[in-house]
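Shipment paperwork, digital attachment
Item: protein structure file
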Amino acid sequence: MRLGSLRYALVALVSSLPLSALAAVTVTATVTPATTPVSAGASVPVSCYAEAPASGMLGSTSIDRIDVTVSGGTATPAQLTGSTTGTCSAGTGTCSILQGAVSWATPAAAGTLSVTCTAVYTTTSFVGSKTYTQASTPATLDTVAAAL
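Attachment content:
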């Protein structure tokens, strides 16, 4: 009889955990200019990458999209979709993976800019589904006035 109440306590404990704690989501943003700093107003390539274990003991996770935000200028496209399933970057396990390239048109004014890739992902378990977000560390870029 005591064992039954222990099981109920365990289920209550696991159910109370936020589903985001069950998923180890990795998100990165990489700016790859040919030279740094770059001329203000230049277009700069940005790579975004997100991965999460596709399944585990307590549920599954799927990367829905990556939203790209910049501190100045515009990113095209501003959203990446179309995740796939593949081997996790650690080399073991299966992950939901979404990666893509974005063109960042920097503003005409010189300065220090940043870009952030934010993964939107859904975790599903026996207690239901919930959508979460996780942002990358911002990648920075210095721009200088264009030469006349």
